[in-house]
Structures are given as structure tokens and as C-alpha cells.
């Protein structure tokens, strides 16, 4: 198994995860995971349901604390979720959650610029102007700014979530299935936009995706997870020479291979 962006040393890494483990009771959701990315690099995380992908991302953003291991962001150890520096670290991160996590009581524009309004970094007038600008970027009409999330389709809510994730020009952009529920044309538009953000702004992007074509063609690096473990990581250019059974099965979407379907009840989807 190779490491994503392994040509870069930890001293130059913008994101460095070392032997990260996260448990929920007796279940090990993330098991001894390593990850290294330099500033401006992009990574797609793939894997079956309950692989630990979303849990890993929530550890990166600070929602879950690490049971073991460390997480470094721009060489700061951000593993402690209660550290007084947490607001400073959080300001560098934008995140799209799997279920969008929009506030039902707020309008679309208030959702998009929620952080800026709460912190007072933008006036409400400036925040609305910023939100309308971002709505156009994700393919929504400016009239949707005054709507509430309940007025929107699932795909439109997804786009609002993406607009909120990029509203602060984050240094690290975390995306949990950014194109889930979107049609192929819009999916391609969103992924092109993500690539443009990474290229033009030097944003480091980590994205969970179920679209294997997008994973292969839009991201520089790829990580394959199953049962909380990393089974392969490396450059997407090296995928065809990987000869890894888990990776091959996932990319091909085959029912035959080392990945088997879970049976029984899952706990509220947190191990996705």
C-alpha cells in the first residue's frame, strides 16, 4: 500500500493524519489511518457503505476527537477538539455534510453565510450579496436566496451546502458526497467548479465520492477504505498498476471480491 501524496514529507504537508483511530463502543470506525496531503492537492476517498469515510472526515473537521493518533493542519496538532485554538483551526475549513445540514429556520442566503453573520465578519447586506454570488457559481438562480431549505429539492439543497462550504474561501475543503443525487450534467459542473477552486485558490480538497469516474479523473490522489482501514492510497495515475483486489472491486462495482455486504442493523449511518 502506498501513501497519498507520498512524495511530500510531513514537514511540508498541509494535512497530515498519523495512525488515527476512532471508536464507537466496541466498533472501530476508523482504524490506524495515515494520510498526507500538501497544500492545494486533491484527494478522493472511496469505499463501500460503513467504510468509515464520513467518520474520518468528521475527525478532520473536529466534530469527533481522535481516540488514538494525531491530526495536523498546517503543522498544528488539531487532534484536541476542546483546544482553545479550535476556532482558529475551524476558520481554515469548509465542509459539506452528507445530509447537507442546512438550518430549516433560515433562508438560503442566511444558510450560505451563516458563519460570517454569526462572527460579524460581514454585514447582513454584504453577506446576502456574497451568497447570491455563490448561488450563481453552483447553478442556482438568485431568487432562491429568499427561499428556505424546505422549498428546495434534494439536489438544490446539496448545491446550497456546497455554496456554504466555499463561502469563506477555506484553505481546506471537505466534501461528503458533493454530487450525490445530482444529474450527470450538474455533477460534472460541480466537480469542474471544485477543480477550479483547488487550482485557482490553492485550496486543499478532500472529497468522499461514489462516482468512480469522477474519482479517477478529477482528483490527483485516491484513498480506498473498507471497515475503517485504508486498503490502498496513492496517485490516481497509478491506479491501473495497483493490482489491489479491494481497489479493483470498488472501481469495477463488482459483487465478487474481498468486499462483502454488511448484514444487520447499522447505527444511524455514522459509519458511512
TrEMBL record:
Annotated InterPro entries: AAA+_ATPase (IPR003593), ABC_transporter-like_ATP-bd (IPR003439), ABC_transporter-like_CS (IPR017871), P-loop_NTPase (IPR027417)
Region named Disordered: 252-272
A family per Pfam: ABC_tran
Keywords: ATP-binding, Nucleotide-binding, Transport
Family matches, as SUPFAM superfamilies: P-loop containing nucleoside triphosphate hydrolases (SSF52540)
The name this protein goes by in its record: Organic solvent ABC transporter
Annotated PROSITE patterns: ABC_TRANSPORTER_1 (PS00211), ABC_TRANSPORTER_2 (PS50893)
Domain named ABC transporter: residues: 15-252
Amino acid at each position: 500500500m502506498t501513501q497519498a501524496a507520498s512524495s511530500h514529507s510531513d514537514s511540508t504537508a498541509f494535512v497530515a493524519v498519523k495512525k488515527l483511530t476512532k471508536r464507537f463502543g466496541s466498533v472501530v470506525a476508523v482504524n490506524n489511518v495515515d494520510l498526507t496531503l500538501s497544500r492545494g492537492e486533491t484527494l478522493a476517498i472511496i469505499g463501500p457503505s460503513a467504510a468509515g469515510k464520513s467518520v474520518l472526515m468528521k475527525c478532520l473537521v473536529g466534530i469527533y476527537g481522535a481516540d488514538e493518533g494525531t491530526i495536523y493542519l498546517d503543522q498544528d496538532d488539531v487532534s484536541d477538539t476542546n483546544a482553545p485554538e479550535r476556532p482558529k483551526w475551524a476558520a481554515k475549513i469548509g465542509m459539506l455534510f452528507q445530509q447537507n445540514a442546512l438550518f430549516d429556520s433560515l433562508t438560503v442566503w442566511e444558510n450560505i453565510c451563516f458563519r460570517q453573520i454569526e462572527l460579524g465578519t460581514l454585514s447582513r447586506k454584504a453577506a446576502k450579496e456574497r451568497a447570491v454570488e455563490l448561488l450563481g457559481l453552483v447553478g442556482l438562480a438568485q431568487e432562491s436566496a429568499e427561499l428556505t431549505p424546505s422549498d428546495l429539492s434534494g439536489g438544490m439543497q446539496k448545491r446550497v451546502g456546497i455554496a456554504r462550504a466555499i463561502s469563506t474561501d477555506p484553505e481546506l475543503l471537505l466534501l461528503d458526497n458533493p454530487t450525490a443525487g445530482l444529474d450527470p450534467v450538474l455533477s460534472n459542473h460541480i466537480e469542474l467548479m471544485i477543480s477550479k477552486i483547488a487550482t485557482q485558490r490553492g485550496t486543499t480538497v478532500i472529497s468522499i465520492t461514489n462516482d468512480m469516474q469522477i474519482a479517477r479523473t478529477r482528483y490527483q490522489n485516491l484513498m480506498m477504505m473498507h471497515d475503517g482501514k485504508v486498503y490502498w492510497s496513492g496517485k490516481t495515475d497509478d491506479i491501473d498498476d495497483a493490482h489491489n483486489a479491494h481497489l479493483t472491486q470498488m472501481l469495477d462495482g463488482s459483487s465478487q471480491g474481498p468486499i462483502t455486504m454488511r448484514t444487520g442493523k447499522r447505527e444511524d449511518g455514522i459509519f458511512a
